[in-house]
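Sample pair:
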Amino acid sequence: MAIQQRVYDIDDLWQLVCQAENADKHFELIEGELFEIAPTGEEQGLLAGDIFHFIRLFDPERNLGIPAVDVGYYSPDDPSTLLSPDVAFRRTDRKTPPLTKKFVPVMPDLAVEIVSPSNTMPQIRRKAALYLQHGTQLVWIVIPDNKRVEVCRLDASGKIQSQSIDADGSLSGEHVLPGFSLELDALFS
C-alpha cells in the first residue's frame, strides 16, 4: 500500500515555523514539498552580507525598494511554493504589500542564491526557474568556487536565458536596480 506524502502550503509552513521546537530552523516549500535548509557556512554568509551591503549602500533611502536577507517569498497564485533567497530586493514602485512580519506574498524583483557545498547546480537552477516563473525579474546565482555569477532572466518569449559573468566582470542591476553595478573582483576578494 502506497503512503501518500503530505502536501504543504504557506499556512502549514507558517504554523510549523511558529512552533518553539522549530525556532532555529529554516524551511523552503517547493511545489508542496517541505525542505529544511541547513545553516550557511561563513563564506556564504559573508558573500550574502556583502551583496546586501552593496545594494543597501546604492539605495540608502530605500526609494527604489527593500533589500532583505533570508526572507520567505511566495506568489499568491501558488501557495505551495515559498523560497528564501540569500539576498533579495523588492521594488517599491510595484503594487506590493507593506513590510510584514510573515512571509512576503510576492516574489522579489531580484533574488540572489549563493551556491553552498550542500547545493547542486540543478537544484539552484530549479529554484531560479521557480523565481522567474512566479514574477522575479532577475536572479543572480553566485558560484564561489568558480568566482563567477550566473545571471538568469526571462526573454520576451518567456524562456529562461542565462549569462555567466567571470570574476573580472561586473553585475548590473538592469531595470530592477537601474544604475547599480557590482564589480565581482570586489565581491570575491
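The CA atoms of residues 119 and 156 lie 30 Å apart.
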